[in-house]
Structure formats: C-alpha cells, structure tokens
Design goal:
By secondary structure, the chain is α+β, with helices and mostly antiparallel strands. The protein has 2 domains: 157 residues, no CATH class; 219 residues, Heat Shock Protein 90, CATH 3.30.565.10. 61% of the residues lie in helices and 11% in strands. It contains 11 helices and 5 strands. A 5-stranded mixed beta sheet has the order 1-2-3-5-4, covered by helices on one side. Helix 1 runs antiparallel to helix 4.
Length: 398
C-alpha cells in the first residue's frame, strides 16, 4: 500500500488553524444555518474535521483534496454548518488551481463560473430575485473568487519561472561562448608560439648536434654562430609574441604580423640553418601584380611556409626544397615540396603539432589543405604541402 505524501508544514498549520477556528465558532454557537440543520448540532463538526484533514493534501494531492472538500461542503448544507468549513473549501479551490495540473488550472475557474451561474438560475426558479442573486453571489465568493485568485497567482509564478529559466539559459549560453572564446584564443596562441619559435629551436637543435658530434673547431664555431643567431632571433620572436598577446608592440603600437614580403628573408635564414644538411631552397612567386591580401590570409600563408621549411630541416633528404606562390582568381595557392626519403630519424625532435596547426589555420579561412608524400613527374618521391586560401575581403577568422 502506497503511503500518503508527507504534508507541507504550511498545510499542517492551515489544517490545524481551520479546525481549531471552526471548533471555537461551534463552541460560541455561531452556525451557518442553525434552523435548517438536520440531526444534533455536533454533526457540523464531522464535515469540518474531514475537510481539515483534506487540507493536509492541498499541496501534494490538490485535486483529491478538492474532491473531498466538495463532498464535505455539500454535507455541510444538511447540518447546522460552520463558517470554517466554507473558508477551508475556498482555500482548497485556490490550492487546486495553484498546485494542480495545467489542465486543472484552466478548467476549475470555468467550472466555478458555470456552477455560480447554474446556482443563480436555480435560485431564480425556487426563490424571488433578491434571494437568488444573493445565493449566486455566495457561491461565486466560495468558488469563482478563489479559483480566479489561484489562476492569477499561478500565471505570475509561471511567468517568473519562465523568466528565471530564460536568464539561466542566457547565462549558460554566455558561459559556453566564453569557454569557446577562451579555447579558440588558446589555440591561436599555441599556433603562434609554435610557428614563431619552432623554426629557431629546430635550427639550434640541429647545429648543436653537429657541434657535439663533429670534432672540428671550424665547424663547431660555425654551428655555435648559427645557434647564437637563432637564439637571438627566437628571443626577438618571443618578445613579438608577447607584444601580440598584449595587443601592442615594444613601441606601444600594434604588433606587426609577418607578411609574404618576408618570405625571401625567411628563406635566407633557412638556407643558413640548413647549410650543413645538403638542402637547397628556391622560391617561385607567380602571383604577379595582385591586390593586397587580407591580413589573416597573408599571416596564414607565411606561417604555412615557415612551418613547412622547419619540417624540411628536420626530415627532408638532401635535395631542393621548393616554395611556390600563386593566385587563381580569388584563391591564394601556397605549395612547398621537399625530398622524401628513408632517414634513420629526424635531425631534430618534433611533436607533430605543426601539421595540426597548418590544418587549423586553413580551416579557419574555409580553405583546403593537403600534406603527404607524392610521386613527382620524374618518378622521385617528394613530400608536398599545398594550401588554397580564399582571399575574399572580410575573410578574417584567424
């Protein structure tokens, strides 16, 4: 057998107060209709006691409580009656609308109006006009008024709850946007840090290995010179990155982003770093006289070339590394090829983040990216990186 739900504390107070109040009225002899009651006077306490018990369910089982209260209100008409019984019934009507189902909250006020109208019409048939109107007003006071009050309170409560839910949803969406913005910014910072510094650190690793493995003073001095140059350049790049993250450079203005005009200098630096690796570097710029590129496109193209050259220093077999730039309509084409062969291992350790960063950069610009080994026209195997970047104005997600 299922136990009844535990009543709310306020419902217990209402039930106790209603019963004690009705008992006091009965003791004082204040009955609703003392001359019309059937049986002994104490019978009026039975509907009062039952409807007081039903008040314990007003919040947990509101429709059941209203049903019991309706029966007790009807029974109260055949005994001397008690004002507290009628007051408790009005509270049960109010609670049924406020705590009941949405369907009950819509139907109970309509049923209350129908009962009040029907009672008035019946009174007009049985009594004269004044008594019928008075009877209708009493029924409306007991049924329609509490039902309308409960419906009004429920409407305002539902509106407040909906506003709270909207505010909570807005807060959650704002938190999601903030989290996504932080994640995107961290990814951007990681790409910039990797692309700015990896080239210099790879050169330092390669030449420090050479200086340690070759017992030649001249070679060691040259390697140490390259190491020093890349250390200084790497430090400068780190300072520029800090300026970029602070949105200002050392001079207080915006930190300048590298452009494709710096590709020649980048190749020259890579030639110096890769002098001992048997690699040669060439540049073919077939863009001709083209309009200035959007800054995000130019930065991404530069970083792709920079990372590809760094990867060539680490992994490529001796031969020629070719960089090509071209433009087909509204698409900038960046291509890098390097000799691909079986090496016992990379010249410098890597994490694999370079290819990931290049793919992310191209994806943010809605471009296409390919990287992997292919067979050249002469049958040799090469490693090819190819990126196609749309150059429409306003393409600036990076």
């Amino acid at each position: 057998m299922t136990a009844l739900p535990r009543p709310h504390r306020d419902d217990v107070l209402i039930a106790v107060a209603g019963f004690l109040g009705g008992l006091l009225l009965w003791q004082l002899g204040l009955d609703n209709h003392p001359k019309q009651g059937l049986g002994p006077r104490w019978l009026a306490l039975l509907p009062l006691a039952v409807i007081s018990a039903a008040a314990l369910l007003r919040r947990t089982m509101p429709l059941t409580a209203l049903g019991i209260g309706t029966l007790m209100m009807a029974a109260d008409q055949f005994v001397n009656g008690n004002i507290a019984t009628a007051v408790l019934f009005t509270d049960l009507v109010y609670a049924a609308v406020l705590y009941g189902s949405p369907a009950a909250a819509r139907r109970i006020p309509d049923v209350s109006v129908m009962i009040a109208v029907a009672t008035t019409l019946t009174g007009l048939v049985l009594f004269d006009g004044a008594e019928a109107v008075l009877l209708g007003l009493v029924v409306a006071l007991v049924t329609v008024a509490p039902a309308a009050t409960g419906f009004s309170v429920r409407t305002h409560r539902d509106a407040a709850e909906a506003a709270r839910l909207r505010a909570e949803q807005t807060r959650l969406l704002a938190e999601m946007d903030r989290t996504q913005a932080v994640t995107a910014e961290r990814a951007r910072m990681a790409r910039e840090l990797h692309d700015m510094v990896a080239n210099h650190l790879s050169a330092i690793a390669i030449h420090s290995t050479a200086a340690l493995s070759l017992d030649d003073q001249k070679t060691s001095r040259e390697a140490l010179g390259v190491i020093r140059e890349n250390s200084v350049d790497g430090l400068a790049e780190m300072r520029r990155l800090i300026g970029l993250l602070r949105d200002s450079g050392d001079d207080g203005g915006p930190a300048a982003a590298p452009t494709l005009d710096g590709i020649d200098a980048l190749l020259e630096q890579t030639r110096t770093n890769g002098a001992s690796s048997g690699l040669e570097f060439t540049l073919a710029d077939a863009r001709g006289e083209s309009l200035p590129l959007p800054a995000p496109v130019e930065l991404s193209a530069y970083r792709i070339v920079q990372e590809s050259l760094t990867n060539a220093l680490k992994h490529a077999s001796p031969g020629t590394v070719s960089v090509t730039l071209g433009q087909d309509g509204q698409v900038l084409i960046v291509g890098i090829t390097s000799p691909y062969g079986d090496r016992p291992g990379p010249r410098a350790p890597g994490s694999g983040a370079g290819l990931v960063g290049m793919r992310e950069r191209v994806a943010l610009l809605d471009g296409t990216f390919e990287a992997g080994p292919v067979t050249a026209g002469d049958g040799t195997k090469i490693w090819q990186v190819r990126a196609e970047l749309p150059v429409e104005e306003g393409n600036g997600k990076v």
